[in-house]
Structure prediction request, 312 residues.
Amino acid sequence: MWCGQLLINDVFTFTAATHDATGEQTDADSVPSYRVYEDETGTPILTGNMAKLDDAGTTGFYSEQITLSTGNGFEVGKFYTAKILGIVDGITGNTLRCWQVIDAIATADLPAIDGSGYVRLQATTHTGAVIPTVSTLTGHTAQTGDSFARIGAPVGASISADVAAVKAQTAAIEVDTTAIEVDTQDIQGRIPAALSSGRISAESTLTSGAQTTLVAAVAGELHLKKNTAGQRCTFFMRDATNAQAGVTGLTLTVQRSIDGAAFESATGSATQIGSGFYTFALSQADTNGDHVIYKATGAGAIMAWREAYTHA
Prediction:
């Protein structure tokens, strides 16, 4: 018979009843004896005899009490079997009682349960007292391993200080983002709503006598008035041995390709500005197309080119 889990140092009472061959309850020839075994150890840790219980009111009813103490050989976590032996009318019979010994739980360690049905934790209040420094915490392990590694040591004085620093940096980023948004809105306000020939173009016209110079907003691309003389384009002639330096004193050869046609000599004239820069005065024929490419070559210089889209 399994008797369950019993606490160490508990007093355990077990009983037995005897009967004859017909099953009728009857007293044993002598009080039954018992032997208590631990796990599968062949030597009993306790032996003894049971005693009659309520002899006047019962027949063949016996009991015994044993203390499950370490002094009696009991250990926490071990399983025990009591073998009870009785003899009735010269016939020997036996029965078993089995249990496990577990550790006792201190009542102070158990949470209290109030009338609400919830567990209420016990709290200890220290008033006007200084709690001493704990140097050794028995039964506890300092925080290490994965969770400690994930948190890591704080960069500043503490983790809360690091969080405060992050919040301050986030606020600064928000200020910068607001400034960027203002600049973006300003740029959007400066972009023209309509496109010119499928492009964004901002042009200004400066008039001096009969000449008109058109300044394109798109870098590297000229916007010229079609079939009109008096306009200019500029070339920077790079040194063939040092592309960071300009070549001076060149006699430029300038050619043009109009609307995808083969290159031919341009009819305008080139003038040196200085430091490797040259300006080319375009003739009317040099601008007589919708899409014109100009290229300039000179001795010891890398070819330079400019691309132009014309308008009416």
